[in-house]
Write a structure and sequence with these properties.
The protein is of the alpha/beta class. Helix content is about 40%, strand content about 15%. It is built from 21 helices and 23 strands. Helix 2 runs parallel beside helix 3 and helix 13 crosses helix 14. The C terminus is likely disordered. Its EC number is 3.6.4.13. Keywords: ATP-binding, Cytoplasm, Helicase, Hydrolase, Nucleotide-binding, RNA-binding, Stress response. Its main location: cytoplasm.
């Protein structure tokens, strides 16, 4: 454990489709639990992994076990037991993303409180991987609707948590229904006696792996988080960059591609920044670091691998733009600031569904991370004005202004204009590229002004007698038009289901690249080789050109508007085993994971 890990995912003998998915996701270097678990699991050995939540356990067992799945066989080959429905869903989604290039692959999360009928239908259709809670797995075993006699592997994820929740007897019962020669991987944060007994009973000569928890973070670093909406991350970041008292920044993202993309977007907004990733030559990386040290760069966008060992005194702020899956990575990231007794600031962007990672980081570091309020537009304006005043004072105190005083006096005499008006004109010339007060049309979505978006108020109208009544649909439409609701039209995108596109990918890309609020991105429809989306009809030509080049799942969108006749003629061939989602809600997420529906069946009348 003392030696530095220099392995890459490409060093493992993973199946080619999995290597392709890992490369596309942007994983560069395995975490300690992944580096030590993947080789023995690939070799078919049983494994005991002692590691905290948030250390990358899912990839540690999913990648090697999926490498041996036979997608031509439609029966359960891998069973993952998880203590909660949330973890079961999370693991199933991760496995689906890793297996995106395995044709015919299906994973099914099974948990209590959901429709048994739909689960039965999905099992009858055939799945290769089942991820479930012990209680619901037992229900299916009793009904004989889940056959485990041909399992290749069983994973016990967070075994100590299953013990704490009273599932340990159910876990043993399930293990007794599995073939004797199956492989077992047991992961747990601790090893109480009951878990140790299961390991002795059901695992064969297991490889034991122990990952030390993250060390305590430096007390000089102030840690904060903002609960973020993915479509607003860039606007949130720029507000923070404007308002925070800072010197230099390092912003961490998950993938190499993201370093370049984010650097380009920030440069377009006037920031001096550069990318730092593993694909860059050593000479170019060293040049970027030197520019950061010298002050010609203020911001570096980096991956974990590229930033290893980075020590630049100027760095006052670390932003985790993408939350790390590994708590050790978080500690190493924020350690880029607050060094040698200096103060430092660490800010973490956390999507609502990533809060479990926030909790894991807090447990591993032994420190709570405080919630932060996003700076308002008024804060941004105040900061710009304060900086402008500081610049004026610095010039007045440090420069010889006598020649300019003579020039202004001469100009005032020639044109009979007051000094205040001349000063205002000069201030305008200096600040015209970055107005002191953000213009209304360039302001980010108002949803950013609150940490948690508030519910949209119900519109009411007043009759002549003063009584408030709910508006009829027609009245609401007229009201929306009167309030400036834009005309909408359908657009076609050259990315579809066969490319791996999901609603969240399309909404996120369009919102980030166009600046449109997500409420104006509607009716996303995913077809086999293309998609359609409803957007404002009057998109500016520059926005259209930019969106054409914007990539989703590695393909340029090539967006183009459709006439009403074209939109009606677009075909969406249906395949019997696939149900496509059409949503009018931008935030709705389309998953290819076969997840049971939460909706109750409507009663027949």
């Amino acid at each position: 454990m003392g030696q530095e890990n220099t392995q890459r995912f490409g060093d493992f003998a993973l199946a080619e489709p999995l290597q392709r998915a890992v490369a596309e996701i942007g994983y560069e270097q395995p975490s300690p639990i992944q580096a030590q678990s993947i080789p023995p699991l690939l070799a078919g050995k049983d494994v005991i992994g002692l590691a905290q939540t948030g250390t990358g356990k899912t990839a540690a067992f999913a990648l090697p076990l999926l490498s041996r799945v036979d997608c031509s066989q439609r029966f359960p080959q891998i069973l993952v037991l998880a203590p909660t429905r949330e973890l079961a869903i999370q693991v199933a989604e991760a496995m689906q993303s890793y297996a995106k290039y395995l044709p015919g692959f299906h994973v099914l999360p099974i948990y209590g409180g959901q429709s048994m009928g739909l689960q039965l239908k999905q099992l009858a259709r055939g799945v290769q991987v089942v991820v479930g809670t012990p209680g619901r797995i037992q229900d299916h075993l009793r009904r004989r609707t889940l056959q485990l006699d041909r399992l290749q592997a069983v994973v016990l994820d967070e075994a100590d948590e299953m013990l704490r929740m009273g599932f340990i007897d159910a876990v043993e019962d399930i293990l007794q229904h599995t073939p004797e020669e199956r492989q077992v991987a047991l992961f747990s944060a601790t090893m109480p006696e009951a878990i140790h007994r299961i390991a002795r009973t059901y695992l064969r000569e297991p490889v034991e792996i122990k990952i030390k928890s993250a060390t305590k973070t430096v007390s000089a670093i102030r840690q904060r988080y903002w609960q973020v909406s993915g479509t607003h991350k860039l606007d949130a970041l720029t507000r923070i960059l404007e308002v925070e008292d800072s010197n230099a920044w390092i912003i961490f993202v998950r993938t190499k591609t993201a370093t370049v993309e984010l650097a380009e977007r920030l440069e377009a907004r006037g920031y001096a920044c550069g990318a730092l990733n593993g694909d860059m030559s050593q000479a170019l990386r060293e040049q970027t670091v030197e520019r950061l040290k010298s002050g010609t760069l203020d911001i570096v966008i980096a991956t974990d691998v590229a930033a290893r060992g980075l020590d630049v005194e100027r760095i006052t702020h670390v932003i985790n733009y993408d939350i790390p899956n590994d708590t050790e990575a978080y500690v190493h990231r924020i350690g880029r600031t607050g060094r040698a007794g200096r103060k430092g600031e660490a800010i973490l962007f956390v999507a609502p569904r990533e809060r479990y990672l926030l909790k894991a980081i807090e447990r591993a570091t032994g420190q709570s991370i405080e919630a932060m309020h996003l700076p308002s537009l008024a804060d941004v304006a105040d900061r710009r004005v304060a900086q402008f005043k500081e610049q004026l004072l610095a010039v007045i105190e440090g420069e010889d202004l006598a020649p300019f005083e003579s020039l202004i006096a001469q100009y005032q005499e020639e044109h009979d204009i007051g000094l205040g008006e001349i000063a205002a004109a000069l201030a305008f010339l200096v600040q015209k590229d970055k107005p002191l007060l953000p213009a209304p049309e360039t302001r980010p979505s108002a949803a950013l002004d609150t940490a948690v978006p508030s519910a949209r108020p119900r519109r009411e109208r007043r009759d002549s007698d003063g009584e408030g009544k709910r508006q009829r649909p027609q009245a609401r439409r007229e009201s929306s038009a009167a309030e400036g609701e834009p005309n909408m039209r359908m657009y076609r995108l050259d990315v579809g289901e066969e490319h791996g596109a999901q609603v969240k990918n399309i909404v996120g890309a369009i919102a980030n690249e166009s600046g449109l609020p997500s409420r104006l991105i509607r009716k996303v429809q995913i077809a086999h080789d293309h998609s359609m989306v409803e957007l404002p009809a009057d998109l500016h030509d520059s926005v259209m050109e930019h969106l054409k080049k914007t990539r989703v799942c590695g393909r340029p969108l090539q967006i183009r508007p459709l006439s009403s006749g074209d939109a009606g003629r677009e075909s969406y061939p249906r395949r019997p085993a696939v149900r496509r989602k059409t949503t009018t809600e931008p935030a709705e997420k389309e998953r290819r994971v076969a997840r049971p529906s939460t909706r109750k069946r409507e009663r027949r009348t």
